[in-house]
Design a protein that fits this description.
about 500 residues, alpha/beta, eight-stranded parallel beta barrel, three-stranded mixed sheet, binds beta-D-fucopyranose
């Protein structure tokens, strides 16, 4: 279940890493000053603090977007030469997905490009973030491109350009070709080279018309949930697989970046990271230290290798041999990203286990970190706390610690399962409120100096929410999964007005 990623250090490090590795390996955890500042700033923020009696303008040329991912919307899982992905295999395994749902058809977007395009136009979007299915483009995980896939994505890109909507491509949103999983998957470092080949293939096929690319979507989510927690594809539960998968992804990020730049030197290349403010539960030294470690694993584990050629100091106790680090790897992981993509939904409250917990639980003695979602704000139907100031906190912190990088908000959104009323209208006022408040926080961060280029709502459509199947609706558009009929929700209409004015309406 997705909530588990918030409890990452608690469950993963307590249940896995500590159990699998000798105690001596866990001594000497470093403390990063950047993390210290980051974790202490935001605890007292209140959701309404960014309200404004005036309209709030956004910078000229700001990208108003929405995001989707191939497996969550495309369907056509075995059509036109597409290869099997780890998500096809996982969803077809009984018991893995809520209600036995699969992405076999999902939103049928593979066959409904023009309907999806019409929604984007109706919402006045000028950016659409979508992912390419690796096994659709390169079914064997190596070798030539599938021409039908190239045609498909070309049609989408051409239609977007025609509609003056920026195509913003994610190269990997979790659907590894199953053949590559059979060869070891992400824990196999050779997958980094496979990824670089695939990136080059995609850049050659589509890069004449696409300038903005994301290498990965949320590396920590798919490595953790796929290789340690087992709740996502490929459903593995191994601490060593997890650590090695993380390292391969960091290598792949470097290799993919250089492959893309070599093929398309003017491309703008980033990666989309799930971020969260890791707030210490109390002001004690132990909780603050735990929060620094949580911050390192949540926010920096895939960013510092790219931008600084190192792993975060607070996690320096992960043994290099278990991770599989070789001497030249730190250079290979470097990827001077043109921008940082931030997916942001909630904050994380971090505490150190009590002395008794640590004494009775050797795992918590070894990695004393407990993480949970905040409890003060309202909850979405997914159980995630709505806490807008977290967006301000994270964005200003990244701006400060990484020398004012360009930032794209690549995802933010909420699950509310409101359906059509008697007149067919979907009155999802809570979703409007969510985006309004998060955008207010973002506007304040821009005023305070952050270089934010765009905001992408998750999601364009209600879709297949991974292990939750179709039980969670995040869309600005309602999808009737029986008929595939799409209906703009009230939030979609509201977003259309904001995008058209390039401004947030005054708070009433
Ligand atoms: C993000 C994922 C996206 C979707 C939303 C709700 O973490 O990137 O695919 O599942 O959560």
């Amino acid at each position: 279940m997705r909530l588990t990623r918030r409890e990452f250090a608690h469950s993963a490090l307590a249940a896995g890493i500590a159990a699998a590795l000798p105690a001596t390996l866990f001594s000497g955890c470093g403390v990063s000053n950047a993390a210290r500042t980051a974790t202490s700033a935001s605890a007292a923020s209140h959701p309404a603090q960014f309200d404004s009696p005036f309209e709030i303008p956004f910078p000229k040329g700001f990208f108003w977007g929405a995001t989707t991912a191939a497996y969550q919307i495309e369907g056509a899982w075995n059509e036109d030469g597409k290869g099997e992905s780890i998500w096809d295999r996982f969803a077809h395994t009984p018991g893995k997905i809520r209600n036995g749902d699969t992405g076999d058809t999902a939103c049928d977007s593979y066959h409904r490009l023009s309907e999806d395009l019409a929604l984007m136009r109706a919402m006045n979007l000028n950016s659409y973030r979508f992912s390419i299915s690796w096994p659709r483009l390169q079914p064997a995980g190596s070798g030539p491109a599938n021409s039908k896939a190239v045609d498909h994505y070309s049609r989408l890109i051409d239609a977007l350009l025609e509609a003056r909507i920026r195509p913003f491509i994610t190269l990997y949103h979790w659907d590894l070709p199953q053949v590559l999983q059979d060869a070891g998957g992400w824990p196999n470092r050779d997958t980094a080279s496979r990824f670089a080949d695939y990136v080059e293939l995609a850049a050659r096929a589509l890069g004449d018309r696409v300038s903005d690319w994301l290498l990965f979507n949320e590396p920590l989510t798919f490595t953790y949930e796929g290789y340690l927690d087992g709740t996502h594809a490929p459903g593995r539960k191994s601490i060593f697989d997890f650590l090695r998968a993380c390292h391969t992804v960091n290598l792949a990020q470097g290799a993919g970046f250089h492959a893309l730049k070599a093929t398309r030197p003017t491309a703008r290349v980033g990666t989309a990271l799930l971020m969260s403010a890791c707030e210490p539960a109390t002001d004690t030294e132990d909780d603050r230290r735990a929060a620094e470690r949580a911050d390192a694993i949540s926010n920096l584990w895939f960013l510092e290798p790219a931008l600084k050629g190192r792993y975060p100091e607070a996690l320096a106790f992960f043994p290099e041999t278990a991770i599989g680090i070789k001497s030249a790897d730190f250079d290979k992981m470097r990827a001077p990203l043109d921008f940082i993509g931030i997916n942001l939904y909630y904050r994380t409250i971090v505490s150190a286990p009590s002395a008794m917990e640590r004494l009775t639980n050797p795992q918590q003695w070894l990695f004393p970190v407990k993480m949970e979602g905040g409890q003060q704000g309202p909850k979405t139907d997914r159980g995630w706390e709505v806490w807008p100031s977290v967006l301000y906190d994270v964005v200003t912190r990244i701006t400060r610690d990484f020398n004012r990088p360009q930032i794209e908000i690549t995802e933010s959104g909420c699950s509310y399962n409101d359906g059509p009323d008697a007149n067919g209208v979907i009155r999802d006022a809570r979703r409007i409120e969510y985006h309004r408040q998060y955008l207010q926080a973002l506007a304040r961060a821009i005023t305070d100096g952050a270089d934010i280029r765009g905001y992408h709502a998750w999601s364009l459509l209600d879709n297949f929410e991974w292990a939750e199947g179709f039980s969670q609706r995040f869309g600005l558009t309602y999808v009737d999964f029986k008929t595939q009929q799409r209906t703009l929700k009230e939030s979609g209409k509201w977003y259309a007005k904001v995008a058209a004015r390039n401004a947030l309406p005054a708070s009433t």
